[in-house]
Amino acid sequence: MVLATVTATPCVKPDYAERVKECPEQDGDPQGNSMPPIPNDTAFRLGPILMFIAVLILSSRAEAECHEPIAPDDQIRRTLSVTATGVGVITAWGIANWDYFTKRPKSSSEGWFGQDTTEGGADKLGHLFTTYATAQGVSSLFEYWCFSPEDAALYGSLSSFAILGYMELGDAFSDYGVSYEDLVANAIGGLAGYYRYRYPSLARKVDLRWEVGFQPNQADITTDYENSKYLVALKLNGFDTLSNSFLRHVELHAGYYARGYSEPDERNERTLYMGIGLNLTDMFRRHGHRKTATFLNYYQPPATYIPAEKRLGH
C-alpha cells in the first residue's frame, strides 16, 4: 500500500489508489480516467534473506580450529549445497507469495539514479548492499567450515551472486520482470563482498552500510526506501599511523538516499552527503562486544554522524 499525506480537501483518502478511483478530478487524466500510481519497488522482497544474512554475519569470522583447509571437492560440494538451499527457499517462497512461474518471462530496463526512475536509484543500492552482505555472511560460514580465507571469500561471493541473481531471474516469471540494472547491482555487490573479505586490511578501513530510521513507513523495512540510506564508511583506526591517535574514534562517510518516490503528493528528491561520525565498531570491539561491533560493520545507527548534504538536480 502506498500512503499519501492527508490534506484538508474533499474526497481525500489515506490510500492513494482508492483516492484516484473515487476522486478522478484530483488524480487522473483530464477526462477523469483513473491513473494508478507506480507501486513501490516490491520486486526486492528480502525479509527471509536478510534474516538468514543476520545469522551468518553475527557468527563473525570463523573461530573453529582448522588444522588444514578442506579438500577442493568438499568445498565445491558445500558451496553447491548452500546455494541450492538458498535457491530452494526462494523458489518455494516465490511460488507461495510472489507469483513465480505464473507469467511468461519478461525483462525491462529500469534506469539507475535518474530523477524519473521508480525509486531514484535507492532500490539499486538495496540490491548491491544485500548481495554484498550475503557474500560476507556466506564467506564467514565457509571459513568456519575450514575453507581457506581466500577460498571462503571466492565461493561465498559466487554463492551470494547465484542466490540473489536467481531471485531476480525468478521475477522474470512474475508480475515484476527481470531488471538488467538489478543484476548489475547484484554483481557489484558480490565483487565488493569478495574484496572486503579477501583482504582484511581493506575490511579494517572500509565498510558498506545500510541506515534504517526509527520511523518506518511500512512493515517490510527492506523496501522502505523512504526510511533508508546507503553509505561507505572510511574507518580511520584502520590506518596504522592513526590507530593510536584520537582520530581512531572518527570515521568519514559518503552516502546517498532518495525521498518522496513512494509518496504521490511529495516532490521526488535525491541526496548525496558527506559526513563525519563516531567509529562505533572500534569502540564496541575494544570493550569486548565483538558481535555488536560486527553488526555495526553493516548497520549505521541514525544520529551518530554530522552530514553535509547536496540535493541533486530535479
From TrEMBL:
User: One Pfam family, short name please?
Assistant: DUF2279
Q: What is this protein called?
A: DUF2279 domain-containing protein
Question: Source organism's superkingdom?
Answer: Bacteria
